[in-house]
Amino acid sequence: MHPRPGEVWLADLGLAAKTCPVVVVSRYDEDPPRVLVIYVPLTSEDRGSGYEVKMPKLPFLRLEGVANVQGIASLPQRRLERRLGVLPQEVMGRIKDALRFALDL
Question: Distance (Å, rounded) from C-alpha 3 to C-alpha 15?
Answer without folding.
Answer: 22
